[in-house]
Design brief:
single chain; alpha/beta; FAD/NAD(P)-binding domain; D-Amino Acid Oxidase, Chain A, domain 2; nine-stranded mixed beta sheet; about 25% helix; about 35% strand; binds flavin-adenine dinucleotide
Amino acid sequence: MAIDSPLDAVIIGGGFYGTAIAIYLAKQRGLKRILLVEREPALLSRASYNNQARVHNGYHYPRSFTTAYRSRVNLPKFIRDWPQAVKQDFVKVYAIACRNSKVTARQFERFCREIGVRIKPADSALKALFESHLIEDVFEVEEYAFDATKLAQWAVCELDESGVKIRLETRVTSIFKGPNKALHIVLQSKHDGDESITCRYVFNCTYSGLNQFAGDFPGTRIGLKHEVAELALVQMPPALQDVGITVMDGPFFSMMPFPALGLHTLSHVRYTPHIHWNDEPVVDPYRKLAHYDRATRIERMVRDAGRYLPTIFESKYVDSLFEVKTVLVKNEEDDGRPILFEKHPELPGCYSILGGKIDNIFDIIEKLDAEYLISESFIDREVR
Ligand SMILES: Cc1cc2nc3c(=O)[nH]c(=O)nc-3n(C[C@H](O)[C@H](O)[C@H](O)COP(=O)(O)OP(=O)(O)OC[C@H]3O[C@@H](n4cnc5c(N)ncnc54)[C@H](O)[C@@H]3O)c2cc1C
């Protein structure tokens, strides 16, 4: 089906960010003709699904105060806006390793107080799960998990209600600067071939694919780093079924409920990242993952995690999620997860956006609130 361009806005990428931004532009900013383009057959099927599903509350970031603090501020808003997608009925535990940890138990407690999050000593039954000679202390905290399939259901309903058009199995290959502030983009569809579309704004919400465009797209100024990450999906034994555990802060592991499948993910700082590379336009991260030999590292993950948490030896491996994880190069050391929000002066009207975590959506919306966006058919008057 041909698109009747010019459009007000094209959103590239139908993950959580692209869908939420399309809905925001239609509902809050009054943009009328919006097209959302997604290369996969379904929305929220890439990083927005293939992740650890943690709604961060700050605990994870003792080395990045800003990320921790923003998480603490954003979590209640996330629960307010997507209550149906937030799983709260499990116990969340942070344990501090005795050796090789970048934070001690006392430092962790102090940090939690500083960012204003709740923390209390875990009860004896929880403590008994851990090998006491390897774990300095164990805390019970408030942190939740999200169900990406529920976020996808929300997105489908809201996009429909907002009149946003959606093109699935379609890839944007190029972005060009046109006359009179117009932008031209080229779509490549499995079914309809190539098509060129004119619009006023482009929102590039493609996460790992941010710099994969030909034409006049200049690339992001902030450097990106990618890794192929493996999250093992496991069936936990009864003692761990309603528990999420993170061992801090170094080469340790996390197990989190994965509500979309009723399983847990198991990830390990040493074994989850399989390969990594710095972003360059000639290497397509999606293609790299598609050709990657996905040999699981579950045995190594469980062997190491089991030293700290022996009950995990009773877990049953089901499958693995593999995804490209993209972070900003500048956060390699501090593990922070800020946002990337770039306007491209060479391509006025084109924005590139990346949220390092799901709750960063509120930081992005705050940025967009400050943007002057022409809310009605600018193009009708100026281009046609
Ligand atoms: C292994 C892993 C673990 C993580 N754990 C957590 C966690 O526990 N908690 C948390 O908050 N965050 C976590 N994250 C980060 C979180 O997943 C991301 O911040 C979030 O999903 C980004 O959403 P997005 O919409 O930008 O990306 P995506 O969901 O990947 O959406 C981008 C979309 O763009 C599409 N696309 C790309 N190029 C094109 C193109 N040229 N044309 C058309 N479509 C295109 C892709 O197919 C994709 O659907 C994790 C990420 C990974 C990978």
